[in-house]
Design goal:
InterPro entries: YdhG-like
Helix content: 40-55%
Strand order of the largest sheet: 1-2-3-4-6-5
Protein name: DUF1801 domain-containing protein
Number of strands: 6
Organism: Saccharopolyspora ipomoeae
Oligomer: single chain
Pfam family, one: DUF1801
Number of helices: 5
Distance between the termini: 28 Å
Length: 115
């Protein structure tokens, strides 16, 4: 079992499908990335840089990326009805993050980091 599998298994049953969905989309968008866990958060690393990470909390999940990716896709995030911080987007079972948005954010983060 990988570290990502262990992390997802430790999340609440309600959030596990969201984490699996995000992991699958990130892996597809970042085929050159290595799955890692840093700072107790699963992520995808390219060339020593974390391009995207995800986490589960008590009632929601977060997707963490470069600030440039969040800025570049702020309108898409808002259109999906999601909230964003400088480096993250939160989502929940009631407001899941669309697959296409996960992929776009991952690609934008990779590009923003120059990878």
């Amino acid at each position: 079992m990988s570290e990502h599998d262990v992390y997802i298994a430790g999340a609440s049953e309600e959030l596990r499908p969201l984490l699996e969905q995000v992991r699958t989309q990130l892996a597809g968008a970042l085929p050159e990335a290595e799955e890692v866990v840093k700072y107790n958060m699963p992520g995808f690393e390219v060339g020593g840089s974390i391009v995207a990470g995800y986490a589960a909390f008590s009632w929601q999940c977060g997707l963490y990326l470069s600030p440039g990716a969040i800025t570049a896709l702020a309108d898409d995030i808002a259109a999906a009805g999601l909230k964003a911080s400088k480096t993250g987007v939160t989502f929940s079972p009631r407001k899941p993050i669309p697959d296409a948005l996960v992929r776009s954010l991952a690609e934008a983060s990779r590009d923003d980091l120059g990878l």
